[in-house]
Design brief:
By secondary structure, the chain is of the alpha/beta class. It is built from ten helices and seven strands. It is globular, with a radius of gyration of 18 Å. GO terms for molecular function: oxidoreductase activity, acting on CH-OH group of donors.
Length: 291
């Protein structure tokens, strides 16, 4: 997909805001690019089963479709965005694989345990866990971050990764993988997303530590750290003015599309990365360059 196509679409972003986490893709204008038609699958995930949290929309939807193109059966978990989730299921199935969806709150440990039980019941196995669900609540003043906000951000963004990984690992084998969604904010910080950035920093360290813990089992653990990507989380988090400027301050001077992030997850899920664990791929338009 040519870069000028992304730039052309980026110029057409309408002023918009949703004010409700984690947001609806169906209400975005223009709709994010979640399926790069130029991306052709090569059977890299045939015979695999993947579970993706936050899989109804945004990066999660794009990853689900990319995995489907590579031959994986895909389960998605989401909060309550039923219309978005149903569309994602249809997109997955259009590539000739099976899909499963579950509306659940992954900030609760019992929900996470049941989710994995349901996936195993549906498919009989679990090979790739993508911990992708997340929320963010911008605050101009650090003192305005309430205990309730702090708890919601941490339970959704990082506690859920502990819960789901603990539930999934007993069902995983050598060659399987866990992929966590971090963020550029974990590396450069964000003055208005301090609690969110802190969870993403925790995810980075969680990834490195869990990779060491599971190395003897042959289960790889890596992360993807996106920059400003056009997902429902953006109009759900910021006012219309900031939404319109989103991504404009990157060296590439544009926001990224979910389809531009998805191949990084395919790499970590497939045999292409058999000698890679505890690492992060930065997909951010040059917003942050890792040392």
């Amino acid at each position: 997909m040519a870069e000028d196509k992304f730039e052309k679409i980026d110029e057409q972003v309408d002023p918009q805001e949703q004010g409700r986490q984690p947001g609806f893709e169906k209400d975005m204008s223009p709709e994010p690019i979640y399926d790069d038609k130029d991306y052709k699958g090569a059977g890299k995930l045939e015979g695999k089963v993947a579970l993706i949290t936050g899989g109804d929309s945004g990066i999660g939807r794009a990853v689900a479709i990319a995995f489907a193109k590579e031959g994986a059966n895909v389960a998605i978990a989401y909060l309550d965005e039923h219309e978005d989730a149903e569309k994602t299921v249809k997109e997955i199935e259009s590539y000739g694989v099976k899909a499963f969806k579950s509306a659940t709150d992954v900030s609760d440990v019992e929900n996470c345990n049941q989710l994995v039980v349901d996936v195993i019941s549906e498919f009989g196995q679990l090979n790739v866990l993508v911990n992708n669900a997340g929320k963010q609540f911008p605050q101009d003043d650090f003192l305005n971050i309430s205990p309730d906000q702090l708890m919601e951000t941490f339970t959704t963004n990082i506690f859920s990764m502990f819960y789901l990984s603990q539930a999934a690992i007993p069902h995983m084998q050598k060659g399987d993988s866990i992929i966590n969604t971090s963020s550029v904010t974990a590396y450069r910080g964000s003055s208005e997303l301090i609690d969110y950035s802190a969870t993403k920093g925790a995810i980075t360290t969680f990834t490195r530590s869990l990779s060491q813990s599971l190395s003897d089992k042959g289960i790889r653990v890596n992360s993807v750290a996106p920059g400003p990507i056009w997902t429902p989380l953006i109009p759900a988090s910021f006012d219309a003015g900031k939404v319109g400027e989103h991504g404009g301050d990157t060296p590439m001077e544009r926001r990224g599309q979910p389809s531009e992030v998805a191949p990084a997850y395919v790499y970590f899920a497939s045999k292409d990365s058999t000698y890679v664990t505890g690492q992060a791929i930065h997909v951010n338009g040059g917003d942050f360059i890792s040392s």
